Amino acid sequence: MSKQEKIFPEGMVPLAKSKFSFSCHPGVSCFMTCCRNVDMFLYPHDIIALKNCLGIRSEEFLEKYVRVVQGANPFFPSLMMKMTDVRSCPFLGPAGCTVYEHRPFSCRMYPLERGVDRTLEKGRAEEFFFLTKHEYCKGHDEEQEWTVKEWLRNQQLLFHNAMADQWAEMDTLFAKNPWAGEGAAGPRQKLAFLVCYNLDGFRDYVRQHNLLGQFKLPAARVRAVETDDEALLTFGFDWLKMVLAGMPTLQAKKKN
Ligand code: SF4
Ligand code: SF4
After folding, report:
1. CB-defined site of ligand 2, < 6 Å
2. Which atom of ligand 1 is nearest to the CA of 32?
3. Helix/strand/coil (H, E, C) string of 222-243?
4. Dihedrals phi, psi of 30, to nearest 5 degrees
5. Nearest CA to ligand 1 atom 2
6. pLDDT digits (tens, 9 = 90+) for 14-71
7. What is the pLDDT of residues 152-203, one digit of tens each?
8. Are the C-beta atoms of 185 and 253 separated by less than 8 Å?
9. I want to staple 241 with a disulfide (CB 3.0 to 4.6 A). Which of 111, 162, 181, 247 is the partner?
């Protein structure tokens, strides 16, 4: 076996540059089927997009639309979309998705799955895309063809993948049980929950504790963090890496 050859799970063949057929539109007989009976994990950037689309604060979004569950990470909770009483996505309307422009990562990515090899064999993380198929999904029988690159661009996934990579780093950090013996729901984990899932609460915390004034940050970054939720989330991740793992992600100002 050559040094570069990778072994993927059985049945999973990366798409590389080959094309796949897919189209999802109101004319397919399965239209909206996948928005019912769905188990959907939500990631920090999904919550930002959805609460901003709805014009509500993140606390209200968590209260109304989210279930906190124990996912794959034994040391940090995951969030899932709370389905309605009839087991459909709360954002499914009579004509389809009512938050389409702001739909979560997993709704955008289907029918692709993304895997990232972080062993850095090539000096950088490498991403792979696989075709996935729900049995009931008729979108695969449509004629429209895509390359992975075209699909990522069409679904605006480049930004979402970058945010997913940031989140994967945090998830890896949380999986190391960085709570300094406080255990689940201790003060450190509560702070991490605030940053990751309740960004409007974290914005209040940043103001109350003058967090931005404590670090050497370019003026442009300060402005971005003050006005933009994704910039605030990235700052929050840097802050957590420093607080929980002592990483040099932020530089404290010297005290007079
Ligand atoms: S967010 Fe939209 S696309 Fe995703 S499951 Fe809900 S209704 Fe369907
Ligand atoms: S099942 Fe497939 S084709 Fe049907 S609505 Fe969902 S994604 Fe589109």
Report:
1. 24, 28, 30-34, 110, 134, 136-139
2. 8
3. HHHHHHCHHHHHHHHHHHHHHH
4. -95, 10
5. 97
6. 787 789 999 999 999 999 999 998 899 999 999 999 999 999 999 999 999 999 999 9
7. 999 999 999 999 999 999 999 999 999 988 877 899 999 999 999 999 999 9
8. no
9. 247
Q: Which residues contact 198 (CB under 8 A, 6 or more apart)?
A: 58, 59, 62
Q: Tally the C-alpha atoms within 13 A of residue 141's C-alpha that lie toward its C-beta.
A: 9
> What ranges do the domains of the chain cover?
20-167, 181-245
- Helical segments of the chain, H only: 44-54, 58-65, 105-109, 148-154, 157-174, 187-197, 199-208, 219-227, 229-245
Closest to 234 (Cα-Cα) out of 244, 225, 223, 243: 225
Q: Residue 142 corresponds to which tokens in the numbers above?
A: 């449509």
In 22-133, beta strands by DSSP E? 41-42, 66-69, 78-81, 92-93, 96-97, 112-117, 126-131
Closest to 110 (Cα-Cα) out of 82, 69, 139, 141: 139
Q: Residue 66 corresponds to which tokens in the numbers above? A: 């989210």
Q: Which residues does 100 contact at the CB level (< 8 Å), separation at least 6?
A: none
Determine contact, residues 103/92, Cβ cutoff 8 Å. no
Q: Which residue has the tokens 């189209």?
A: 23
Instruction: Decide: 99 in ligand 1 pocket, CB within 6 A.
Output: yes
Name the amino acid, one letter, at 80: M
* DSSP letter, residue 90: T
Strand partners, 112: 131
Cα atoms found within 13 Å of the Cα of residue 184, Cβ hemisphere only:
9
Q: Whose CA is nearest to atom 8 of ligand 2?
A: 24
